[in-house]
Design goal:
Cytochrome Bc1 Complex, Chain D, domain 2, Helix Hairpins, mainly alpha
Length: 256
């Protein structure tokens, strides 16, 4: 007898497999330790890991609650909002000359639109089969440029922002009832004071709140005359009588 060269199997896709049972998981005993059934083994493990992270997140939230600011006031023109950290790069972009003011549409829509459009088109421009980044220059270049731009703009936004002033402007302070019809408030609103300290007198970037200060009228007049901190002297434009009334009005603003 002559030894054969082997045996060949021929399959026909038109022949239906009568013994197929889709609802019964396959037998993985032939591959021990290499694979397992998705349900319930793998799915149960994923649920357990997810539950551990969820409980840890809840504990962290309870131990370190999110910081709250005072109630939003749409009439406070001195308040400078700050977006969350993942939008800081766009926030920084809007600070530049040709992306803000009259060119705001360029910084808000045109530049981000071109950047994200380039990232979306990258897979269609570079359709090579290579998987190594070095052999896909267009896709790699677009991605590196995008990552570098986001990191740089985010960093610039963080280092140039006045975090101390931002913390003060959102600080929860004791509420004081302000009589906006009083003579003292009318003098206040007619001076440059309202520009920095706000319509609610709660302060703004670089300017402290002037309610419930604990200062006497004479001390307030001294600050008005000589200035303090970022507040220069000689800002009050009015008579000494108006200055006295303004100082007495600020002195009377005491939290209940």
């Amino acid at each position: 007898m002559h030894r054969g060269k082997g045996m060949k199997f021929v399959g026909d896709s038109r022949v239906k497999a009568n013994d197929r049972k889709p609802n019964i998981p396959k037998d993985y005993s032939e591959y021990p330790g290499k694979t397992e059934a998705f349900y319930p083994n793998f799915l149960l493990r994923e649920w357990m890991v997810g539950a551990v992270f969820l409980v840890g997140f809840l504990i962290l939230t309870a131990a370190h609650p999110s910081p709250l600011e005072r109630v939003a006031d749409p009439t406070d023109t001195a308040y400078i909002p700050l977006p969350d950290w993942y939008f800081l790069f766009l926030y920084q972009l809007l600070k530049y000359t040709y992306a803000s003011g009259p060119y705001n549409i360029i910084g808000a829509l045109v530049i981000p639109g071109l950047a994200f459009g380039a990232l979306l088109l990258a897979p269609f421009i570079d359709r090579g089969p290579e998987r190594r980044p070095g052999k896909r220059p267009l896709a790699t270049g677009f991605m590196l440029l995008a990552v570098a731009s986001v990191i740089y703009l985010t960093w610039e936004s963080v280092v140039t922002h006045d975090w101390e002033a931002a913390a003060k402007q959102g600080e929860i302070v004791a509420e004081v009832e302000i009589d906006t019809e009083s003579e003292g408030y009318q003098i206040y609103s007619g001076q440059a004071c309202i520009t920095c300290h706000g319509t609610d007198m709660q302060g703004g970037p670089g300017a402290p709140a002037i309610v419930d200060t604990g200062l006497t009228a004479d001390e307030i007049i001294e600050i008005i005359n000589n200035g303090r901190g970022a507040m220069p002297a000689g800002q009050f434009q009015g008579s000494d009588e108006d200055k006295q009334k303004l100082a007495e009005f600020i002195e009377s603003l005491i939290a209940e």
